[in-house]
Design brief:
Strand content: 5-15%
Helix content: 40-55%
Number of domains: 2
Radius of gyration: 25 Å
Number of helices: 3
Distance between the termini: 45 Å
Order of helices and strands: EEEHHH
Shape: elongated
Strand order of the largest sheet: 1-3-2
Length: 102
């Protein structure tokens, strides 16, 4: 998939206001045409904001979903009996959570 930025557009995606694209003309450098049934094509213009969001999504997808070192430390503490639970801190956070919901 070839995604190219647009110039001068400030909102997410532009679909040409619902109009059909002219299939006789090739796509401009800023637009990617997708052939449809019957020889028609449609275009989607991607803005700089959408490209930035795509890069953020790719970066997040590459990040680990959890901290493996922290999990290993907690596992070790649980197995040797040194893990302590701060019940006051848990209670305070539960109360704050409930208050935020209201």
């Amino acid at each position: 998939m070839d995604i190219r930025p647009t110039q001068g557009s400030t909102n997410g995606l532009n679909t040409n206001g619902g109009k059909k694209a002219d299939a006789s003309q090739g796509p401009s450098p800023e637009k990617a045409g997708t052939p449809q049934a019957g020889g028609e094509s449609s275009t989607v213009t991607v803005t700089d904001s959408a490209l930035k969001m795509l890069k953020i999504e790719q970066t997040l997808a590459e990040m680990p979903s959890f901290d493996a070192e922290k999990v290993a430390r907690i596992k070790q503490a649980l197995s040797d009996g040194s893990y302590t639970i701060n019940t006051e801190q848990i209670a305070d956070k539960l109360i704050k959570f409930e208050q935020d919901l209201a």
